[in-house]
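Researcher: Structure for this, please.
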Amino acid sequence: MLPQEQIEMFPVSHGMNVKARKFFLWVLAGVFVIGGAYLIISAQGLVFDFRTFQFLKTGGIYLNYSPKDAEVDINGQAHEYANIITNLFTSGMFISNLTPGSYNIKVSYPGFSPWEKNLEVRPGIVTAASAIGLWPTDWNAKKISDLSVSNFWLTGNGLMIKDTKGNLFFGDQKIGGSSVALNDENKSSVVISDGIDFYFIDLRNPTSSVPLSLPPGAVIKKWFYHPFDQNALVAAGTKYLYSVSETTGISQRLYAVNGNRYSYKNGNEIIVAQNDGTLFAANLILRTTATMKTGLNDGISAIAGDSGNILYLTDLAGQFYEYDRSSGTSTPIKTISGIVSKIYPSFDNDRLALTDENGTLSVLAVNDYKRDYQVERGTAWKIQTAKPVSDFLWLPSALNYGVLLENGSLVVSEMDGRAPQNQYLIDRGVTKMLLSGTNLYYIKNNSLFGVSLAQK
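Model: Predicted structure, token format:
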């Protein structure tokens, strides 16, 4: 026990201790209330915006890109890879608790051109860019033929090439004829024309050919591979559809048609746009025919479809229509292009790329488009180009991209409607392009080049 004098050296103020304790308890209670309220508000996706001095419901951004270790900048600041989410089903970057507004996103990687987009974050919504592709600054195009090339075609066994003297070649083998009337990148055969007659060639034995015998005076507008007979072809003429044997070359009349302005293969059907504006459809498997009155009495110049009940038609004046086979009605579709000249259906069958007589390229959503760029059916948007577009190809390996031929410039373009639309120059001075899988072939200065569009 301490002596009395030592106890008095350490006086205790009981009144100050009580006040301090009460103050400390109030502070703790305040922190608990404020912290709890903040946790509740945060759990509901709300943040305080000091710009507007109000609580706002947050949103998020999801990015998926290739190469996977690319750098991501958001509003000019690098985003840490600690926020990358990876699991069995998906990989990418998810940024949460973002106040509503516009965010500039930039994805970059050495040796590749950057991707940039302004993404709008909305309350309670995750804005996605899940198909970001970075494309190389050096495409490493390779010359693939020593011939002076004027034209070429894809086959399942390689390229058919026409030189500047008018000769056809398959590999090193010179082939008779002057042009290819039928080819397919998945078929090992072609139909060759010499300007008068047609010949069938099996590319597994390109030195032999089968003359295709057609009735005298028959005018063939287009050839097709038969939808189910592996040994037959279909010739769409101005008066008849013919079945033609690949082995004997003998033709047989299938169905009569009333003129042939345009022919189109739609699944198992051959569809012919007849002179009076009607469509004649022959299902070669079911052996049924139908004549459809479209109301386009001036004639049809282009057809596209997805093997369903809907066909997309362009009349001779370039006006664009949706034809519903189940109801037999044609509905004009307003496009942001002028007079539609070409129709390019996408691989997902939800969009059409359209070019007009001025080379303007636009995209039309023919179904509700529910991917990253979500728009309602009938929405159209323009693809920004510096020059008129003469040809277009959708990329099957990257559904949000296409290849444009802009007055000689070969360009990979993003098909998203959100700005800016990222575009990447491959080469200039190009006269023709074709795509086989991820391999792009093109002619420049009478030389044939190939470049890979496979992403890293």
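Researcher: Any notable elements?
Model: Residues 200 and 289 are 27 Å apart (CA to CA). The chain has a mean pLDDT of 88.
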